[in-house]
Amino acid sequence: xxxxxAMNGRVRSEERRDAIVGATLEVIAERGxxxxxxxxxxxxxxxxxxxxxxxFPSKEALLVAVLEExxxxxxxxxxxxxxxxxxxxxxxxxxxxxxxQTFSALLGESVTEGHPARDFFTGRYTRVREGMxxxxxxxxxxxxxxxxxxxxxxxLLVAVLxxLQYQWLLDPDAVDMPAAFRDxxxxxxxxxxDRDRDAGGDSGS
Length: 205
Description:
Layout: H1 3-31, H2 38-45, H3 49-55, H4 59-74, H5 83-93, H6 97-109, H7 118-140, H8 150-170, H9 177-203
């Protein structure tokens, strides 16, 4: 096999992997997390299930690839970041429950030793916490209006983002995820100011 043949084969393999990931996203959107079977994805891309496993050795490996693709779409740059961008991302997630369900289901399973998604989520949380802290520092400086340093506020921000997703998935009629996240942003950014405004409105003095 020549070098050119090897390169062409690698390109075709990457293109096929991209097609499989795209098909998985479509299946998740159509059928939800549980309906995203390997058989359904294989049928959509015109492969046998065994052919699909040649590119992704398990369903978990395929779903991790889907989440990595989602992260590439959803990444928020530290430069020029504004808090309202996160609120917009939460609103966007509320329109794609299948992807949120995939993320949350794998996240819950990944806490067990040896799970194929564990390294993905461990690395992801490290990057996200660091990115959030950098973005918060760029926006507020060394202290947020609530008094927390960006490095201390970042884990709370990430925890609320993911925790709200679980509550919303379990009871979407009871939990307005975008509204709840905006409430948290108000507490994090200027909680005392909000309470003062409420109190002032009542007293009129």
